[in-house]
């Protein structure tokens, strides 16, 4: 299974050529959508998406402007609506907060997340009578913002960003995880939940060998999942498997992201943003090694036509940014697999 995934990922780094114009060519071949080379404010980028036949719950985006570069990976669960809403609104809310504050800060990003959560909650409330199931839809959100010489990482849920960093003059590359994950499988998260809910012995439950918040969901932070945040949504007519047996006197899940500010250094070579499906099959070190083994990845792409049959049951989005600190040229690759 792991070898099949590695073989598939290696296709991403085969030489494909580049465009000399302002925007490269692209197209669609079956489940593959691609673009050769395009221009962003930060430089060049390449993009590819491989999509499963089923409904795509994950979303991703890369944007640039006077603020720098914005990258988002949104891992939906329970349905595609929350991830789509985040993709449509989080960056817009970020721009509003950045303009009001005049700079990119941790507070700027927090305000954008808060506005997005409030907006989605309002949608759920407005559609409660006709689409109550929206209360059980959510999305993990991983965001990176490159502003001047600082990389901001904000995360809700269990997606991950890993930095590939040069190790002196050895030619080696270190894998450094920059994001904090919020999954009940981690002892630190279980401890955090127990501290927040000291009177609830069932706040985390081991169910079928998997730790879950209230025995229902693995992640403790997300956009959406309002049935775990507001008592008015934890009732009929949502599915009984989501309804709690006892009254909810405080939010169980949170939409407050963990934010890190990382000053960029000349030894920082590339970033890998991916939802949890990738990290279930690759370690941080192996993912960095795959990228490092193809030093001209910024000029490579999926060679169409391409037919992919996935032998495993996972689903993830991946964005890889390779950048030069002097000009901040960047390249991104989106992959969605099932």
TrEMBL record:
InterPro entries found in the cross-reference section: PP2C (IPR015655), PP2C_BS (IPR000222), PPM-type-like_dom_sf (IPR036457), PPM-type_phosphatase-like_dom (IPR001932)
Keywords assigned: Hydrolase, Magnesium, Manganese, Metal-binding, Protein phosphatase, Signal
Taxonomy, superkingdom: Eukaryota
Cofactors: Mg(2+); Mn(2+)
Protein name: protein-serine/threonine phosphatase
Signal peptide stretch: 1-19
Stretches assigned to the PPM-type phosphatase domain: 44-338
GO MF terms held by the record: metal ion binding; protein serine/threonine phosphatase activity
Enzyme Commission numbers on file: 3.1.3.16
Pfam families, per database record: PP2C
PANTHER family documented for this protein: PROTEIN PHOSPHATASE
Keyword RNA-binding: no
Family: Belongs to the PP2C family.
Lineage: Eukaryota, Viridiplantae, Streptophyta, Embryophyta, Tracheophyta
Species per Swiss-Prot/TrEMBL record: Linum tenue
